[in-house]
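Side project, low priority. Logging it here so it doesn't get lost.
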Amino acid sequence: MYDKILLFGLFFVSLFSCNTPIQNRTNNCINSDWEFVKTDDQTSDLKTLDNLKWEKIVLPHDYSIGTANKKENISGASGGWFGGGNAWYRKTLEPFKNLENSNIYIQFDGVFMNSEIYVNGNKIGGKTNGYLPQHYLLNDYLKSDGENFILVKVNNSFQPFDRWYTGAGIYRNVYLITTSKVHIPIDGTYVTTPIVEKNKALVKIEVTLVNTGAKEKTISLKTSVISDDVNHMAESSDILIKPKDTLIVSQQIEIANPKLWSVENPALYIAKTTILENNSPIDTYNSTFGIRKARFSAEKGFELNDKKVMLKGVCLHHDLGSLGAAFYKDEMERRLVVLKEMGCNAIRLSHNPHATEVLEICDSLGLLVFDEMFDRWEMRLDRNQSIAKPFIDIWKADLESFIKRDRNHPSVIIWSVGNETVEQQHPQYAERARELITMLTDCVHKLDPSRSVTCAMHPGHKLFNPNRGTIESFMDVASYNYATDKFTEWKKESPETIFLSSETRPYNDTFEMTLGEEIDFSGNSWFSLDSTSCGQFIWTGFDYLGESPCWPYRGWPWSLINTCGFRKPISYFVQSLYSEKPMVYISVFEKSLSDSLKNLESWSKIWAAPTYTSHWNHASFNKNEISVLTYTNCTSVELWLNEKLIGEKFLKDFADKVIRWKVPTTPGTLKAIGKNNNNPVCEYILKTAGRPQELKIDINPSSLQSNKQNLIQLVISVVDSVDVLCPYAEKAIKITVKGNGSLIAIDNGDLSDHFNYKGENVKTKSGKCVAFIKMGNENSSPQVQVSSVGFESKTIELPK
C-alpha cells in the first residue's frame, strides 16, 4: 500500500440540524465471558491447553495482584514482591456473517506482556510492549459456519521488567470493531487547530482512508464539527480509492466565536467524519478534540490560549492500588477529581502509556498532561535484558502508535520520550544519547509538529555526571528531575533554554528533619519557580505498587494520597500552594510515626512525609503541649481550642507558608479559621473521638457519574457514638457481597500490610478501609455485609 495526500479547500457552513446517528460502524466491548489459566507450560501445541483447569473471568484482569508478596519473589522491590508467571486467556465468539462486505477487527488496549494472539489456531500477532494497544484484522481467520476461538498467551515470567509494578495479563479493555471495506482505520484522524483567535478558529482534520476490498470505490467524505449549539461542516467529493490502497484526505473548517479548551472551562468538540458511497453512509468515525493554543517559551514558561499558566502538577503511575494494573475508569475518575479539587492542573503520566480513558478524563476535567512513552532506552535495567526485543527494533512502531493514539486529546501539551535514561547520565554514552534523542524527537515532530518534545533528565550526582545533561539542547523543552534549585543559574548560562521541573519532592531532602517536630517546607521546588518557569510535577500524587523502599513495603508509601484515595496531611500543604480557593487544614505531630521511621534502612527515607497526622486523639496528651501546623492560602488563621482563642497568626510571617503553633494537650475540639481581609472564609475542625462504637459505610461513586464499568468504592470507618472517626482503631473487617455484584478488591492504604487484595478480610488502618464492588449485568441491587467482632454487622443495598 502507499499513501497519497489529497488537500481540499476551506468549507464553512454556519448551521444545520442534527441528523439521527448512523449505525454503520460498531465498536463492542467484549470483556465478558473470558477464561483464564495460569501455567508454566508455554507449549506451542494449543490442543494440550484443553486439559488445563480454566477459570471464568471478566476483563480487565491482572493475575499478579492476587499473588502472595514474598521476599524471594523475583519481582523484588521493583515489582513490589508480587508473583508473575505465564498465563493463557481464551474466548469463544459466534459465527460471523457477511465477511465479504465487512471487516472485523479485534483491539486489545493493553496486555502485559510478550503477548501472542491466536484466532482459530492461527497466530495473528502479538506485542512485547504491554502498555500499548494492538489491533488486528480478523477476516482471513474467522469462520462463518462455526464458533471462533480467541486465544491469548502472556509471558510475564521475567520480572522485574520495569522499576515499578507492571501487572500481568489482559488488564485493559478488549473491543470487537466492525467496519465496511472502505473505512477510517483505528486512530485514523488527526485534528489540529493551527489558527486560534478570539472570534474564529481554523480546525484542520487529516483523515486516513483505507480500502481493504477487491474493488475500486468512488466515495465522498463529510466532516461535521459539533458543539453544544452549533455545527459546522466540510465536504470532500469524488474521492477514488483503489483496492488495498490508503489515502490521506485533508479538510479544514472555520469555527466562528470558538469556545476555547482551558483548565477552567474544558470545552470539547466532536469531529464526526462520515464516508459516503452513492450518498449513503458506509462508515462514521468520531474524534473528540478541543480548540486551544499551547506554547512553551523561555520568557514565559507555559502559556495556554496566550495566558501564562504555571503547571501545578503531580506524577502518576498506572496502577490503581489494590485493583492492580487492571484499569477501571470509575476509579481513575475518582482519583483525578481529588487531584483537581486539590488544585492540581497538570498530570505527568509516568513512565509509560496509560489507558486512553485517562486522557479522556483529563480532557473533560481540564487537566494538562505530560504524556510519556519510555522510561529507559537501549540500556534498560541491569537484569533480564533478553526478555524483550531490542529497543532499536521496536521503538519506532511503538512511538508512532503512541503518538497517533493520543494526539487528538487537547489535554496533552507535551510529549516525553524518556526518563532518567542511562545513556544521558553517563558521559561515556553521550554520543549515543544524542543520537537516540534526535531520532526520537524527529519521529514525534513528523507525526505531531504542533507540540513540544522533552525527555525527563537525571540532574547528575557524584556517581554519574555532576553536570547538566548531555542531551539538553536536543529537545524543545529541557525537563529535569530534582534540579529546580539550579534553574536560575542555568538560565543565566543558557537564556534561550526552556526548563521544566518534571519531578520534585513534596517538601525537603532531609530525613532527620522529617523525624522532628520542627519542619522546614521551603524545600518544595515551588518556592524556586519564577515568572519564566513552566511549573512542577511532584513525585507522586498517589502511592503506587512497586519501587518498594524496602521489605515489607509492596509499593511506594510516600506520596500525597494513599492507595485508598485517602489524602495525607502533606497533600493539604500542596493544596495551600496550588489552590486559589480559600482553605485551611490542621496537622498535629505524631511521635509514634516518627519512632516507626527511625530504624528504616532505605535510600528513599528522605522522601518520608513529616510525621504529622490530622486528629485530636494523641497519646502525647500526657505532655503539656503539642506541635500543630496549619496549612492555608488565607491571609491569617485563628486557632481555637474548646471555644477559647489560642491566637491569630499571619501567613506572611512564615517563609515556607506553614503556620506553627504549640497547643495545650486538652481533649475536645480544635478549630482553625482561615481569614482574608479580616473576614472568616473557611474552617477546619478536629474532635477527640470516644470509644469505637459502630461501623459506618459510605458509598463513593465516580465523581463524574459515568459508571460505565459500575465500579463502586465503599469507605468503611470505625466511629464513636457521635460519628467521630476513631483514628487508632485497627479492627478486622470482613466484607461479603450477595446478588448482582462482586467484591474485586479491598485496601487499607498500608503498603506494609500483606493481606490479600483480592480477599474479603482486611484490618482498618487509622480507622478506615475500602472495598471495591463491581456491579453485575442484572437489573437488581447487590447487598454488601460488613462485619467485625465486637460490632453490629451492617448491610447495605447498592444502587442498581
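Brief comment: The chain has five domains: 3-22+183-289, 27-180, 309-581, 585-614+616-687, 694-797.
Revisit when time allows.
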